[in-house]
Design a protein that fits this description.
The complex is a heterodimer of chains A (237) and B (421). With 237 residues, chain A is of the alpha/beta class. Chain A has 8 helices and 10 strands. Chain B is of the alpha+beta class and 421 residues long. In chain B, the strands form 3 sheets. In chain B, strands 1, 3, 4, 7, 8, 9, 10, 11, 13 and 14 form a 10-stranded mixed beta sheet that branches. Chain B has a two-stranded antiparallel ribbon with strand order 2-12. In chain B, a hairpin with a 5-residue loop joins β5 (127-130) and β6. Classes of the chains: A alpha/beta (237), B alpha+beta (421).
Chain lengths: 237, 421
């Protein structure tokens, strides 16, 4: 039986009169692949910011790997984020003047020690070994997103958080990224992905739907998981 | 990785970094120039002020007493004299190098052609000799009266049978340059008419031997006028001027080895028998005041240029950091602590500042030399301590200039710049 890696208990995030998240309860097991869906303004990004230790809830507690991160200060959150979370962004957010391998090494540098060989292996894992010395401007959107994934994975995080990771990609590259997620899932990495795209949402093991800051649906997709994944990740890297 | 990021950022942002470096160059060059001028200007300002005459007068101690008590001086006040043979010893004192010019004076009187009694002043109009140390000496009264307006010529070193006549006496008696007058029945050629603008305009200037002959005071002088380079007085100098024996041994050594006017007077008294050296207060104090104000002006310019640089740097760095907020927010998201981001930005700025500082320093030395040549007609000596002072100023200017950017960085939330919220 899988252990619980993440628990949200009665989590709310309030901005003035606006409740971005309202009384959220969620439990995620280690190795799960969860997608979070919902319309704009439903609280998806707020939720992922809280899970990713970049924000704290106004009410409630967030237990990440046994630690209540809602009580931690900014420096502790930075440390926890660095050690346990891998972040993937819709806009990739690669540093424009560093090469692909250097972008991966930046994450190593702030975690422990930069190791170029290890960074090259991470790029090879996402199929970019031959593009390692290229600057982001010389890479396609899909390639940039794969560098972003390699950077997120380089420190072996316990949870991989994707905020619309396929939002800026064409269908082919979307398939490549989903395939990478599939392989990571097989390796036991916990994946939480926020997405607008129903196709990407459907390939996860489990899908929750947010509306007005509340979970309105929590769907176990285990039964259709393998089939949907096979259809989506038909492009091999 | 750290240095790779720094290097690549500097190259990528070379436009902005060059602007920061340029701002630093301006500030540092101005500070370097002002401080070098400030430290090297003391002697030069003093030399400029020497055109206004002597700043020390040496008299026999009894004559000095009469002068102190009753404000009396000149011929007939006292019959005690200094010795002419002691005069050249002035150059042998500890601060002898700071004695720029000097001339002995002997007051006298004689009957003019028409029998009227006139006042005489005997001196070294010009003196060229070699000191026992082998040093060539060129001094004389003409160096102490540079403001005199002369009709005709100055007396020469050995013009014992010539005189210069004050313009008031000359106009009274209708004397012109080139005329011959008699003093006590002896004929003297008038080489020039001088205009002093003071009491001397009714006197006759002669060589020292000529007046000594007339007064039968061979080897005697009434006073010595001395023009010396001095350091502005401070509390120690004022305390010493009251009573040197009140100083502790350390204070005494400091005072004695500093070119305070009181220290130089003290040393003059050590070599001039029975002499009492007194600063001409108005001149000495004016020199100190002008020097202090010049120094203050230079310090103010340095401070203002530093503040200006800090403000300009502050704007440039803040603009640069805001422009890079997404990149720096990403580093935070990847696990960089605030101090690591601040260190990254500070090192970038400090390296740029260092580069600008080196250029600015050498440019400042150039400015200092231009100022030296233009204002004082000579080069300004480069003070090594300026490098240290400029480095400290540069560090703090860059640091203070970075404060708004640092505050912005500390408050920067990755969620705001990465999600555009």
């Amino acid at each position: 039986m899988s252990s619980t890696i993440l628990e949200l208990h009665n989590v709310s995030k309030i901005y003035g009169n606006l409740k971005a998240l309202a009384d959220i309860n969620l439990s995620v097991n280690a190795g799960d692949w969860l997608s979070i869906m919902g319309p704009s303004g439903s609280g998806k990004t707020t939720m992922i910011n809280i899970i990713g230790c970049m924000d704290t809830p106004s009410v409630g507690s967030v237990i990440l790997d046994g630690v209540d991160i809602s009580k931690e200060n900014a420096a502790s959150l930075t440390r926890i984020r660095r050690d346990k979370i891998g972040l993937i962004f819709q806009q990739f957010h690669l540093i424009s003047y560093l090469t692909a391998v250097e972008n991966v090494m930046v994450a190593q540098y702030y975690h422990s020690m930069p190791d170029e060989e290890e960074a090259m292996e991470a790029l090879a894992k996402v199929g970019l070994a031959d593009r390692a010395r290229h600057l982001p401007a010389q890479l396609s959107g899909g390639e940039q997103q794969r560098v972003c994934i390699a950077r997120a994975l380089i420190n072996s995080p316990q949870i991989l958080l994707g905020d619309e990771p396929t939002g800026n990609l064409d269908e082919e590259n979307e398939g490549i990224v989903v395939d990478i997620f599939r392989r990571l899932h097989e390796e036991g990495v916990t994946i939480i992905v926020v997405t607008h795209d129903p196709e990407v949402g459907d390939v996860a093991q489990r899908k929750i739907v947010l509306e007005h800051g509340r979970i309105v649906d929590d769907i176990d997709q285990s039964a259709t998981f393998g089939e949907a994944l096979k259809l989506k990740s038909n492009v091999s890297v | 990785m750290f240095w790779r990021m720094i290097t690549k950022t500097l190259i990528r942002q070379k436009g902005k970094m060059l602007m920061i470096a340029f701002t630093v160059i301006l500030g540092v060059s101005l500070s370097t120039a002002m401080m070098n001028v400030m430290l090297g200007v003391g002697d030069k300002v003093n030399r400029e002020l020497k055109v206004y005459g002597a700043n020390i007068t040496v008299r026999h101690k009894d004559a000095a007493l009469m002068n102190d008590l009753y404000g009396l001086s000149g011929q007939g006040v006292n019959d005690k004299f200094l010795h002419e043979e002691d005069v050249l010893k002035l150059k042998s004192i500890f601060w002898g190098f700071n004695i720029l010019d000097f001339a002995p004076m002997l007051d006298g009187h004689a009957s003019l052609n028409d029998g009227e009694d006139v006042q005489l002043v005997g001196t070294w109009p010009e003196k060229n000799t070699t000191l026992p140390t082998g040093e060539e000496l060129h001094t004389g009264f003409n160096a102490l009266r540079t403001w005199w307006e002369i009709s005709g010529e100055w007396l020469g070193e050995n013009d014992d049978e010539a005189v210069m006549v004050g313009h008031m006496l000359a106009s009274d008696k209708g004397i012109k340059a080139g005329d011959t007058i008699t003093l006590n029945g002896k004929a003297f050629k008038v080489k020039g008419i001088f205009n002093d603008g003071g009491n001397d305009d009714s006197k006759i200037l002669m060589t020292l031997p000529a007046v000594q002959d007339i007064m039968n005071l061979q080897g005697k002088v009434s006073a010595i006028e001395v023009s010396a380079l001095t350091t502005p007085d401070n509390d120690l100098a004022r305390k010493a001027a009251q009573n040197p024996s009140s100083l502790s041994p350390d204070e005494y050594e400091t005072w004695y080895c500093t070119a305070y006017v009181s220290a130089i007077c003290h040393q003059i008294q050590e070599v001039i028998r029975d002499g009492v050296a007194k600063p001409v207060r108005q001149v000495a104090e004016s020199e100190g005041t002008i020097l202090n104000k010049t120094t203050l002006l230079m310090i103010l310019i340095t401070i203002l240029s530093s503040i200006g640089s800090a403000l300009a740097i502050s704007n440039l760095i803040t603009a640069s950091v805001i422009e890079r907020s997404q990149e720096l927010g990403l580093l935070k998201a990847l696990g960089a602590y605030n101090w690591q981001i601040v260190l990254l930005v500070l090192v970038e700025v400090m390296m740029t500042g260092l580069l600008g500082g080196v250029f600015g320093y050498f440019l400042g030395i150039g400015f200092a030399q231009i100022i030296g040549q233009t204002v004082f007609g000579s080069y300004i000596e480069i003070a090594r301590m300026v490098i240290l002072i400029v480095a400290v100023i540069l560090f703090f200017v860059t640091l203070f200039g970075s404060i708004p950017a640092i505050r912005y960085l500390m408050a920067l939330k990755p969620t705001e710049v990465l999600h555009g919220k």
